[in-house]
Amino acid sequence: MSQTNYLWNPAPVYSLPVRDSEARMPVKRIFCVGRNYHAHAVEMGRPVDKSSMSPFYFLKDASALVESGATVPYPAGTDNYHFEMELVVAIGKAGFRVDEKDADGMVFGYAAGLDMTRRDLQLVAREQGRPWDLGKNFEKSAVCTEIVPAAGLGVLESGAINLQVDGETKQTSDLSMLIWNIREIIADLSSFYHLEPGDLIYTGTPEGVGAVKPGNRITGHIDGVADVALTIGQPE
Ligand code: MN
Predict the structure, then answer these.
(1) How remote is the CA of residue 115 from the centroid of ligand 1, in Å?
(2) Which of 41, 67, 93, 99 has the most CB atoms at less than 10 Å from its CB?
């Protein structure tokens, strides 16, 4: 009996609670859709024409995951730390080149998430044609609630999505406003990646994104899914 000897402890299994379950969902990859609500694409100065454009993606490491309710330090390297309220889709089956009509069966559940963003660094990267990692993929930048099993719900088509900072509403929209809906995203994303159980898809944010400061408390809601919360702590 030999056991692998590692120099140090291997990375932990990152996971999220599942509503009404003792079991947690192990998280594999975190995909994020860019510009998936028209009014947000416009506020970012990059309107989307669905007839001639495809969705695009960036990823966050699973280690960037933080559970709803946490307090996170104001991150390093930014003066413009933004919230983005998003519906998160949790994949429960393996799938490659999935047809839109089969997308329902890929969904294990949903969650409410925050795609926290160092906007100043993201925009510098965007303007200079560099990767978005510094702006998007940083520690504690992927906030997520418990996973709500889809069981019987199928694919969400509509529902209010909103976000408040210290009780003041900043974002308000509806899932029906998604440019590429959940079925279309699963079909498109699975044409580039073999989706696997535990993959998360942050489906994009509506308009009204903005900056937060230490001491702010973010709350967000998606009808029929969950409520997310995050408190911004002092810089490290
Ligand atoms: Mn986003």
Answers:
(1) 5
(2) 41
